[in-house]
Amino acid sequence: MRVPLGWLSEWIDLPDSHEELAARLTSAGLEIEEVIEMGPDLSEIVVGHVVKREQHPDADKLSVCEVDVGQDENLTIVCGAPNVDSGQRVPVAMHGTTLPGGLKIKRSKLRGVKSNGMICSRRELELGDEHDGILVLDTDAAPGTPLPQVLPTGETVMDFEITPNRGDWVSMLGMAREVRANFGGEVRHPTTETKPSGSPTSDAIAIAIEEPDGCFRYTARAVRGVEVGPSPAWLVERLEAAGLRSIDNVVDVSNLVMLEFGQPIHAFDLATLQGTIRVRAATAGEALRTLDDQDRKLESEDLVIADDSGPIALAGVMGGLATEVTAKTRDVLIESAHFHPSRVRRTARRLGLHSDASYRFERGVDREGQARAADRAAHLLADLAGGTPTDGVVEARGADAPAGAPISLDPARVNRLLGTDLSESEIRDLLARVDIEAEPAGDELTCTTPSYRNDLHIPQDLIEEVARIYGYDEIEATLPGGAIQGTSLAPRKATVAAVKDSLVASGLTEVMTAPWVPDGEVDDLRLAPEDPRRQRVQLQNPIHAEFPGLRAQLVGSLLRVAQANLSRQADALRIFECCRVFLAGAATDLPTEPIQAALLFSTPREGQLWAGHEAPVFFEAKGAVERVLADRGLSPAFEAGSDQPFLHPGASGTFKAQGRVVAQVGELHPETARRFGIEPVVAVGVLDVDALDQIGAQAPQYTPVSRHPRVQRDLAVLLGVDVPAGDVLEAIRRKGGAHLHSARVFDRYEGKGVPEGKVSIAFRLVFQREDRTLTEPEVAKAVARVVEVLAKNFGGELR
Amino acid sequence: MSAVADLDAVLAEAETAIAQAPNAQALAEVRAGFLGKKGSVAAVLRGIGALAPEERGPAGQAANQAKVQIEAWVDARKNGLAAAAESQSLADHHLDVTLPGAASRVGHLHPITQVERDMCAFFQGLGYSVEDGPEVESDWNNFGALNFPEDHPARDVQDTFFVKDSTNVLRTHTSPVQVRAMSQLEPPFRFIVPGRVYRYDLDPTHYPMFHQIEGFCVGENVSLGDLKGTLYAFARHLFGPQAELRFRAHFFPFTEPSAEMDVSWGEGWLEWGGCGMIHPRVLQNCGIDPDRWQGFAFGMALDRAAMIRSAIPNIQLLFDGDVRVLEQF
Q1: How confident is the model at residue B64 (pLDDT cuts 50, 70, 90)?
Q2: d(Cα A160, Cα A543) in Å, to the nearest integer?
Q3: Which residue has the higher pLDDT, A603 or A314?
Q4: Is the pLDDT of residue A387 over 60?
Q5: Beta-bridge partners for A310
Q6: Do B225 and A478 touch (CB under 8 A)?
Q7: What is this model's ipTM?
């Protein structure tokens, strides 16, 4: 809401400092969005002191002035104005200055005398039409002072953000009241007086409210014999400063009254009305052509103003074209009503018709303010359009407007909620500043709220008023005491944190992406028709039409991020995301939101320093998954292959713990890679974080360490290329005996020296006893067992 | 020639040979040549038997002294050779130490995760539990229970994403978690809730997905002063001990009184979040007796804190997944 301060100062005395005004109102809840300086830009014009004035030697009408503008030397300026004289303070535009009209001031010679600038008139500064002489300033400011500092050149407008609970603030009156609450003073109301005409309003119009729940009060007054025409300049400027355009004097008056009191006004051409004015619900199928020349189809929940011809206005939203005031209008009917906020809001929303009137009705108007606004409009129409108002208003009442019941307030409760120590009388004084009367009744205060406040219903509402006026900044800062029930982490959060830490330890960087995904993603991921992840939660109003639903898995998002990074020449990408995904159930139910993690490694494209020692990305991804599981104390079973259709069938695997699939890992299926535009080989892992959370984490358990020496045996074994090394390792571990401490694969070789179809796998076996040093025969026996099983079960032979 | 004279010659010869031995192996051979069973000293000793009895004693002594002397020279030479070999090996080994270090590549937690953990740890220190909730929410949990009336302009400012064919929404704030937690538990309690929220808003300073952190504390005497103190402590944890706060009256349907707060930032103020005393109707909607219990709630954007902390100019940078950005943190 734009508040011109000059206008506001007519309603109440303002503090001298705009900063102080802004600071206090901000603190009280009126946030300033913008401060706008209206009027011409005179920041380059300075105050000059005319030290000497002499007659121009060659021109009767010109004076030669010596002007002090605060510089080392006084300027000589030739001036044609009759009123210039020595001793005056005047506005000076020096060489190089541009006047508001665009004229650039330069040094010149006038009839042989050099002039170094210009002494300006009001018109030259665009401060008015006066051009009979220069503007003589009523100031003793130092020469050189910028003009705007001594001469208010235009209106300062503060644009406030109004919170939706304070309909009463959306007016000059409301602003004046808030200034009074914060700075004191008296609010000055504009006059509503009119001369009696001897003709009562009831002769002009009759009103009936047929929908009492939709309209609390309907007030009208007629003004006869108006001359519709342009508004005077002050009214045009005032509306402009407030952000409205001038239309004609009748429309402008209704807008002005709305800005003054916050009460929307509508003006009908009285001659176009037929019979009684009725406030009623529309009947379905009725139509109305509104002021903006649009035909509106009405529904039964719309509240309309109707006459015998049918609807003539959408109550509180917009008037009808047929009854509009035009240049030919002579008699005007002023409507000043109080409609139900929700009825106005529903119609405005349904039709997308948000007007200044609907904005105010939705937020609530003063339930006692209708007659005053109608009278003010009548006064102004008499004044500005030469009309003759009828006497008094006619008024019809619907249901009682809500609010207004006295509220009981316990002063102890005020202090308990705020943490203050205010006395009863301090509380009463603070409330009095916002027109709340608080009368002691026993231990409590009975508080009566003013008719313009629609937001005060419960004691806490009053406590907020106490805090607001007392000042939030005045309340002492303390910390809550009392019992604490524990400081746990939400169940899955600890698991999410642990998974993220493990993945970061594997060199992966966390990304966060928005949950909406394109429709085609499920096809690109090759999800089967019956895959539940195809059923996504769809948004009614997606931010991008091509991203209409929420993801049921994270891989698609991760692949898009990977593709974008790869296209930016990122190399050896290692990324993961861990968050909720959305599995749609029945439409009205909430979806289930499992937490998943997805990770991705891309094969390095360029040579790296110390290259040649990295594992293929599949094994990096597998290792990252293994670390997550190991960090949770799990020893999962691993099986080749996976049921994820976006993974390569020949290069993927599945981890199971306690019989549940907890993770899958694999190279990306070439078709999916192609569809996502990913060129290098990438490996992807998916983790079921919920499953990990349910299985739980096992703290690492101590295993005894032996003081006795280890014995190491390396076995290079020729195996068929299709023999899974993992199975062989498993067999070695099983057959290695009680003293096999560890067994691992430490080399894999194909090529020269190894027959076709074979591969040489080297296993390192480490033996150790806890109780004593192993003997050579013990080790030999164990190794022999291993060699035997390698030969028997896997066709392996030692190299 | 006397045995002693022989020994003198042997010693002289040994001193030269030991000094000239080029390496440990040669030195060992030289040593054997003098001190071994077939060495020069042994030969001299063998000759002692042929001497007159009175000469045997002094000759034996001299021979033993010669042995000790030669051993000493051998040791000295051995040490000398070892030292020389070590210097040589030091001189021979050379790395181009200006090549970059090969630190194992570490990953990076997202800046929002980092800030979230920092914030949660701070509040856990004040006795808060960390709570979590779904991102698709019912109209009741997101609006109704929080005292947003139907058909009220307060709903307009929320820029809600609606789920198709249902009344569910993408939660516009983390406050539904407040409703869920308060509906299930008996006061007193205090919770901190970090989480993703969604608003239909896309411009250089807004992204339709962002993160909030919300805290609430309910007890019999939890006051607005306690809210201020908590937020002061939090602000100074995040922004440094000089941080000041400014509270401005505001309107939220779910708190009464309500305030927005600004934190001092350079010369000016930075909008930081909203707060207030939980509206009695919200307590009631969650089955908590508002005449006995009262409490505060506050919420602020988590992304903003991350952006301020690391001077990130644009919120979109957080969600583009650009590793050139994310690997900086």
Answers
A1: confident
A2: 29
A3: A314
A4: yes
A5: A307
A6: yes
A7: 0.84
Chain B residues with CB-CB distance to A475 below 8 A: 224-225, 228
Q: Name the residue facing A510 among B113, B246, B257 (closest C-beta).
A: B113
Q: Mean pLDDT over residues A672-695, rounded?
A: 96
Closest alpha carbon to A669 in A555, A531, A575, A579: A555
Give the SS3 label for residue A191: coil
Please give the Cα distance from A101 to A123 (Å, whole number).
10
Domain ranges of chain B: 3-92, 111-326
Q: Do B202 and A488 touch (CB under 8 A)?
A: no
* Among the partner residues A463, A478, A573, nearest to B323 by beta-carbon distance: A573
pTM of structure:
0.82
**Inter-chain contact B188–A482, Cβ cutoff 8 Å?**
yes
How far, in Å, CA of A432 to CA of A439, rounded?
A: 11
Beta-bridge partners for A313: A305, A319
Q: Above pLDDT 90, what percent of chain A?
A: 81
How far apart, in whole angstroms, are the C-alpha atoms of residue A81 and residue A96?
21
Q: Please, what's the largest Cα pairwise distance for chain B?
A: 136
Q: Which residues of B touch A476 (CB under 8 A)?
A: 225, 228
A460/B153 touch (CB, cutoff 8 Å), yes or no: no
Distance from CA of B260 to the nearest CA of A (A): 9
Domain spanning B111-326: which CATH class is it, in words? Answer: alpha beta
Please state the separation of Cα A773 from the chain's center in Å: 72
Whether the per-residue pLDDT at B116 is higher than 80: the answer is yes
Q: Min CA distance, B265 vs chain A (Å)?
A: 17
Query: Looking at the complex, does the CB of residue B241 fall below 8 Å from at least one CB of chain A?
Result: no
**What stretch of H or E contains A158?**
strand A156-161
Structure tokens at B140: 């009741």
Residue found by looking up tokens 């021109």 in the block = A59
State how far the Cα of A18 lies from the Cα of A408, in Å rounded to an integer: 37
